[in-house]
Write a structure and sequence with these properties.
Protein name: PepSY-associated TM helix domain-containing protein
Number of helices: 12
Radius of gyration: 28 Å
Helix content: 40-55%
Number of strands: 10
Pfam families: PepSY_TM (PF03929)
InterPro entries: PepSY-ass_TM
Strand content: 5-15%
Keywords: Membrane, Transmembrane, Transmembrane helix
Length: about 400
Amino acid sequence: MKKYTLRKLFNDVHLWLGIVSGLVLFVVCLTGTIYTFREEVEELMSPEKYTVEVPANAQPVATNALIAQLEQELQGKVVSISILEDKSSTYSVGVAPAAKEGGKKAEGGRPATYFVNPYTGQVVGTPESATSEFFGTVMRLHRWLLIEGDVGKIIVGVSTIIFTFLVLTGLVLWFPVKRKNWKQGLKIKTNAKWKRVNHDLHNTLGFYSSILLLIMALTGLCWSFEWYRDGLSSVMGAEVFKGRKEKPATIAPAPTTATPQDYIQQANLLLPHAGDLRLSLPADDTTAVVVQKSQAGFFALAASDKVQLNKHNAEPLKVEKFSDKPLNEQVVSLIKPLHLGNVYGTFSKILYFIACLIATSLPVTGTLIWINKLRKKKKPGRVIRTGAATVAS
């Protein structure tokens, strides 16, 4: 009887955890792969909403005039405006419904988003489309398998925990028994039989993508379990998703002399680097204006600097630069882009897309390996005839 080794234990854990969670992980990884380039696909399907032709020697409409024009046309209050560094990009403008008589908020008072031509002020579209609806379904399938309530979220969360163990045990199993054969795990033997090719696809591609897959799994759990999110916050010494709870500074009421254009100019003075800019305008007179600025480009880090300004005179109240934050706060603030893959712009998206594609294939190649082993065990022994005797080998 063969000795039950530690390696055999890892192999059994890897096998049975993979069988139990394979279907869910296939769906989660496939939807994650599809979702990676959501923004690019939406722009490809509706380019007229995201890009405009830049007229010769033309300048964008002044922000003050643009806001006044939109508020009159859309019968609402502009609460945010996003200006991309690319001059051929449309502005993304958030407009809240106008308050009813007596200052009461309109029903369904959540701001609506409009894409606006910066050179004419014309509204060219909204985010709603068949493509955005498709990606919304993909996201719900990725997050909770389209199962309403906490059940779907728990199933995905538990499967993600299992996935973490699968990656870790897979790394252990990747190392060969004989150390001198470790190079074999770095390449796929394409001229071998399909069973060997399938094994190499599972083993080698799983190894190359393991780091990114671990990052995806460990960050993804922040959306599944509150206890995990709180634990990670304690370990890192910084609160995960802190930005969701943060509110702008409170200021004293006063006559307002500053304009949106003043806020933008002040923010550009405090944050002189080029980049995409988002201006958030408060509806009341006691809340600060917030301006966020982030880098743009193929390798751009998905982190933003933030300035809070006095709404009445555009004086700076607080300046938060990402580079000035401690390392633990930087890492925690990047949880979402680390999971989505845009942490380093398009460059990291490409890497994540490939890693997600590999992750989608792992349940398939792993199942084929298991089936092949079952067939091998059931295969009858060879019959060897030696004279009058018949021996089964």
